[in-house]
Amino acid sequence: QVRLVESGGGLVQAGGSLRLSCAASGFINSINDMGWYRQAPGKQRELVTSITKSGTTNYADSVKGRFTISRDNAKTTAYLQMNSLKPEDTAVYSCNVNLGPPYYRAIWGQGTQVTVSS
After folding, report:
1. pLDDT digits (tens, 9 = 90+) for 35-45
2. 89-115 residues labelled b (16+ CB within 10 A) or e (exposed)
């Protein structure tokens, strides 16, 4: 079973930076895409960014140029570097991992709070 451990959330002033980590353990050979979603109070969960096993990245328009996703060489830990943070980035950020064969399912982290003060 794949287990995800997230870290790095917190409180930061607008314009500041935070770095989130998502470490996977377990059936790591089945890990395909890794990504981050966020959900603000009263809003739907949205995809922030994702990265494939080969390193192709995808970003929501609202974070392009400010956020960067990366993955370690072992492909088991994803990092989200968030710069120039805005109050509207405040949300619970959750790591998501898509598993390939033989599992074909998604795994979620426990979520970490990111709060950006104005």
Report:
1. 999 999 999 99
2. bbbbbbbbbbbeeeeeeebebebbebe
Which residues sit opposite 116 in a β-bridge? 12
Instruction: Return the closest-CA partner of residue 108 out of 67, 61, 47, 29.
Output: 47
Tens digit of each residue's pLDDT (9 = 90 or more) over 57-102: 999 999 999 999 999 878 789 999 999 999 999 999 999 999 988 8
d(CA 70, CA 59) in angstroms, rounded, equals: 12
